[in-house]
Amino acid sequence: MSQCCRKIKDTVQKLASDHKDIHSSVSRVGKAIDRNFDSEICGVVSDAVWDSREKQQQVLQMAIVEHLYQQGMLSVAEELCQESTLNVDLDFKQPFLELNRILEALHEQDLGPALEWAVSHRQRLLELNSSLEFKLHRLHFIRLLAGGPEKQLEALSYARHFQPFARLHQREIQVMMGSLVYLRLGLEKSPYCHLLDNSHWAEICETFTRDACSLLGLSVESPLSVSFASGCVALPVLMNIKAVIEQRQCTGVWSHKDELPIEIELGMKCWYHSVFACPILRQQTSDSNPPIKLICGHVISRDALNKLINGGKLKCPYCPMEQNPADGKRIIF
């Protein structure tokens, strides 16, 4: 009996010890879930941001459809439009269809559609200081060089396409023409072997996407993907601010639907336009409160200007130069 009791006691102690280790790990799971998943994440956005639930749903569906079109998933986008009864104009879809058609050809190393598009939009590309057409001609010339000596005459004939770009791309044209000397020996074993690098195809796809989107009035990156990436950075900060506001019982601080309670740094990648904050009121300017340049050259917001008017005169808070408030001019950054 004593041996059985001792054996049972040892077993119970071992089970208790094992359970203690397991319990420690299991108890941390709940905390990890609470830390990484917040069911009230929608609480950081005021309901006043959206005009209605229908408007919110329509904006989200449109963002998803635009993302699918931009990623080349045309059939998925069409299916979503049908199932959600979302009406998308053909004028909206056409730029994406054209963009994806040309990109698919470039991925298959077919330069024809891209060259045709670049030639037809030559003038507008020049206004953007784009070198897309030259890079497409250069890549076609390199493909001819890769064909060996039997393609030499064809390559020399095609080199006439470089003539309009001679002033801006003289050095690159000289390099390509110099490579003809090594054509019989093989470019892959010459100082010009870098011309055969496959990275040129990835570069031309990026260049075409960037310039074509600028020309067609499209964003290079999907607005949905940019919003999602920005939200991943901003939401944890906003959740912390929301918790502090609730703890201190000052919920009225965050009442405006078009501004955040603090500035959140998203990095240079998300800088799309200049932002001016009034040095007097410490507020970001907007369409209703634009930046105003005074005669002395200093810039303040319109709200600050109105508050500084005294007896029909305005004294600059920096100079201080006295002037007529009506002489201030609106600035657009």
UniProtKB/TrEMBL annotation:
SMART domains: CRA (SM00757), CTLH (SM00668), LisH (SM00667). Residues 278-319 form the RING-Gid-type domain. A zinc finger (RING-Gid-type) spans 278-319. The keyword Nucleus does not apply. The keyword Zinc-finger applies. Keywords: Cytoplasm, Metal-binding, Transferase, Zinc, Zinc-finger. Residues 95-152 form the CTLH domain. Core component of the CTLH E3 ubiquitin-protein ligase complex that selectively accepts ubiquitin from UBE2H and mediates ubiquitination and subsequent proteasomal degradation of the transcription factor HBP1. MAEA and RMND5A are both required for catalytic activity of the CTLH E3 ubiquitin-protein ligase complex. Catalytic activity of the complex is required for normal cell proliferation. The CTLH E3 ubiquitin-protein ligase complex is not required for the degradation of enzymes involved in gluconeogenesis, such as FBP1. This is E3 ubiquitin-protein transferase RMND5B isoform X2. It comes from Leptonychotes weddellii (Weddell seal). The gene is RMND5B.
